[in-house]
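In this section we walk through a basic example: taking a raw amino acid sequence and producing a predicted 3D structure, encoded as C-alpha cells. The instruction is simple. Fold the sequence below.
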Amino acid sequence: MGRIVLAVMPWEPVFMSTTPRLTALDALHRSLGATMTDFAGWDMPLRYASERDEHNAVRTKAGLFDLSHMGEITVTGPQAVDLLNYALVGNIGTVSTGRARYTMICAEDGGILDDLIVYRLGDTEYLVVANAGNAQLVLDTLTERAAGFDAEVRDDRDAYALLAVQGPESPAILAAVTDADLDGLKYYAGLPGTVAGVPALIARTGYTGEDGFELFVAPGDAERLWQALTEAGAPHGLIPCGLSCRDTLRLEAGMPLYGHELTTALTPFDAGLGRVVKFEKDGDFVGRKALEAAAGRAETAPPRKLVGLIAEGRRVPRAGFAVVADGEVVGEVTSGAPSPTLGKPIAMAYVDAAHAEPGTEGVAVDIRGSHEPYRVVALPFYKRQK
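The resulting C-alpha cell sequence is shown next.
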C-alpha cells in the first residue's frame, strides 16, 4: 500500500502509513493526554495542552521533549573520519572527542540532502544524527559512500531514545539528577554520564534557541528518565512539550527546517549557510566542484537571501506564500507562524537581494490574494540573554 502525503501541519509534510513507528514513550504520552500526529512515519506528540503555554515554558522555565524520531547512525573504524570528511561538507577531522559539529550532507550537484549533527564519541567513533524524514536516505548515502574506506556505517535508530530538556532552568533540573560536570559541558559538546541512574550521552545541544540538553539513552530506560526529569523539574516549572511548540521556538531562533529552508534544490550557499562548507579540508568530498561554483555565484550574483519577516497585521503566512513588492514577486515564504514571544505573526522567507536589507519597506506577503504588509528584519527574531 502506498503512502499518502498530508499537510496536517503547516511546517512539515507527514507521511501516513498503516503502521507508524512508536517511541518508547508512546503509552506515557497518551496517558498525559497528548494530541498525537504522524510525523515522518512516527506517531509523535503534537501538544499536551496549550501550544502557547508549552512555548512560553521553554522560553522562561523549561520544557521536556521526546525526540526519539531522530535518526542515529554510528560510524566507526580506522578511517571513520576520512569517510565523514568525504561524505559530508564539514571538516570532521577538527572535531575533538566529546565535541559536536553542525554540518550537511550534499548531493554531487551540491543540493542539500540533510543537515546533521555529528558527535565524536571516541578516537574512531562518531554519532551522526539525521532528521527523521531523511534518516534512511542519510544511512543509505553514507553506506554507499563508505565503499573503499576502512569504516563501518551502522543503523542505530533502534538503539536510542532521545529526550531533551530545554530552557533557562534546564541546567538546574539536570544537575538534580546527575553528577556529570554540566558547568564544564560547553555548547555543542557531549559526554557520557549517568542521569537518574541511567547511562546516557549528555549533549548540550538543542533546537529551541535556549540553553538545554539532549539525552541519548537506551529505549528501555526512557520512561524512567522521563519520570525522574519530570519530578526534578516540577519545582522549576518544567512541563512536557510537543512538536508544535518546538517549531515555533526554532522559527523564532531563526533555525532552518529541512524541507522548508533547506532542500535538494538549494546548496548551502543558497541557504546562507556556506560557512558549513570547508574547502580547506584534506582530500576531495562529494559535491566539491558544484559547491565551489555555488560559492563563486554567491559572490558575483548574490542569490535570494533568507530573511525574517514580521507582520504589521494579524494574518499568518505559510510556507509557499509569495513575497511581493511593487506588485512583483520577489521571494517566497519558507516557514510562518504566530510568534508567542513577539506577539505577532512571523516568517522566514527567501527574497531577492534588493529587498533583503533589514528595514526594507514596501514588502508584503500574498495571503490568499491579499497583500499583507511585513517588515524585513535580520534573523534570528529572538536571541536568549547569556
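Looking at the output, two observations stand out. Confidence is low (pLDDT under 50) at residues 1-17. The chain is about 20% helix and 35% strand. In the next section we compare this with other chains.
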